[in-house]
Every structure is written in C-alpha cells, then in structure tokens.
Amino acid sequence: MTSAAAEPFCLGAHVETMSFKLRFPEKQIKYWADRYQYPGEKELIAGPVTSSRARGYLTKSEFLEIARWKTPRSQTRCSRNDPDFVKEVTRLALAPSTSDRLRIESLTLLSGIEWPTASVILHFCHRETYPILDFRALWSLRCPVPTQYRYPLWSSYTNFTRDLCTRRDITSRMLDRALWQYSKEHQNGA
Q1: Sign of CA dihedral 55, 57, 63, 66
Q2: Residue 144: phi, psi to the nearest 5?
C-alpha cells in the first residue's frame, strides 16, 4: 500500500490534512488498468487531444468534445463559451510557462467547467503529467471527496500521482484507468 501526507487544505472553516493510500496493492495497477472500459477515449485522443497538443490550445468544438467525454450534462453551459475565450483560456492553461495553479484554475473560468473537467483537459492535452480529479479516483485512494475543490488538494493529489507513476514506471493514464476501474467494481452505489 502507498500513502503520502499531503499539504493541509481548507473545507469551510476546518483545516484538514489529506493523505492518499491505495485501496489495492501497487503491483495491481496494471491489472486494474487493463480492465478499464470507457467509451470514446480512443476517439478523444485521436481527435481533439492530438490537435490541441500540436497547436497549443483547444478550439471550441474540441473543448466541447472533451467536456462531453467527462460529463455530458455540462454541454449546455459549456456551449455558452465564446470560441475566442475558449482559445485564450486553453492557450494559457496549456502553455509551458504557466504555473500549475494558474493552469487548473484558469480553466474553471470557462462556463460549465469545474475542477474535474479542468483536470481532464490538463490530463490529456498538456505535455506535463496531470491526473484526472474524479470521485472514483479519490475513493480508490481513500480520500474523501471535498464539497469544494481547492488548489492545495489538487497540488497534493498531483504530486502523489506523479510520484507513484515515477516509482512504478507507469503512465498517468494507466494509473487513472486503474483508480477509476477499481472504484467502479468495488465502490458501493457508484
């Protein structure tokens, strides 16, 4: 099992310390990742992900495709974004010189985008390694889902997953698939 203490973060008036601990042995990451099935991922990677990485920003149609993959119910709000604003915000978020905090938080300026969908954009479209912030992944790491996401949680979660990927010599995509699939098969009511 893996654990790492994380920086404190605030939920309302309470300050808590986050820690992450896999619910399954690290050596099973590949096993759980291989069981992963989620529709549309190959098309997403072949289309908007590849294009945006080459170009350095998302077009509005690419942005909508990625948002739909993460959460189809956000489409109405996401479609309200001006194409130029999508381009401007995603160019900033995907730029190599932008700080980690500005990357994730700038994406939430887009209508319909909360931290989980912002993390999907970074996970797939940025050249650096970022995890997907998802209730399933957090559950698989024994981390309660906060009522409101804040940067200290994101930073700690990102650092934990990067360290784990480096230590196990796996990709962030493999780890994300494993965390998601393990939760899908074991989390009651999800």
Answers
A1: positive
A2: -65, 145
Contact 106, 93 (CB under 8 A): yes
pLDDT digits (tens, 9 = 90+) for 74-118: 999 999 999 999 999 999 999 999 999 999 999 999 999 999 999
In angstroms, the CA 165 to CA 148 distance is: 26
pLDDT class of 190 with cuts at 50, 70, 90: low
> Contact, 164 vs 175, CB < 8 A?
yes
Asked if residues 103 and 129 have their Cβ atoms less than 8 Å apart, the reply is: no
Q: What is the dihedral of CA 188, 168, 103, 121, to 10 degrees?
A: -60
Question: What are the two backbone dihedrals, phi and then psi, of residue 168, each rounded to the nearest 5 degrees?
Answer: -90, -5
DSSP characters for 92-144? HHH-TTS-HHHHHHHHTTSTT--HHHHHHHHHHHSSS------HHHHHHTT-P
Number of domain units in the chain: 1
CB count in 10 Å sphere of residue 116: 18
What 3-state DSSP class applies to 21?
strand
Q: Residue 27 has what DSSP assignment?
A: G
pTM given for the model = 0.89
- Over residues 120-132, the pLDDT tens digits come to 999 999 999 999 9
